[in-house]
Amino acid sequence: GITAYAQVGLNTENPKSTMDVSAKRNAAGLLTDNAQLIGLQAPRLTRTELTANIATYGTNQKGALIYITDISGGDTSGQRANIDTIGYYYFDGTT
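The structure assignment produced for this chain is given below.
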């Protein structure tokens, strides 16, 4: 067996960080597809779905990112205390 450490790149052969996501580019660095959808999407869920999730976030989840699509259900108790509008949320170690 061997141990290997690596960086991962999407649309790049030379990742510059642990996870490097690039738009599709040619060797000259120019976009190769002007119709591509560019960006990252965090997991999308409703506050109801998050409320039903029984997992408790801890220090290993600091920085976890989600996108809440609907706040008509669920609740704002405990770690969901600040989830009061549609949008991005991250876990800071407490809420």
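Interim note for the steering committee: The two ends are 41 Å apart (CA to CA). The beta strands are 8-10, 19-21, 44-45, 65-68, 87-90.
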